[in-house]
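Justification of computing resources. Each target in the renewal requires a structure prediction run like the one illustrated here; the chain below, 95 residues long, is used simply to show the kind of job we budget for.
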Amino acid sequence: MSEDGLTIYSHRYVPESSFGDYHMGSVKGIAKNTGKKTLSYVEIRAKFYDSRGNVVYNFMDNMNDLAPGETWNFDIMYMAEVEPATYKVSIGTVF
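Resulting structure tokens:
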């Protein structure tokens, strides 16, 4: 997935723990500035879905001043009452 010089190379959901009724985890991934200019602000978003396809949580991670060729290890937090069945990652704002 690539947009405006930002490319997402990989991502995966990592369950971390449960506290009472809440499940915690994160989407960890690798993105890179594949363009020719420094990106002042970049954002990667994740939507998390239950087994019925309902959105149960969404969140994002961001980075400032990602230079050409630099790699970013993003980490998008998850915390909700159900363990996610699936998730989708997208590139948000880039400039």
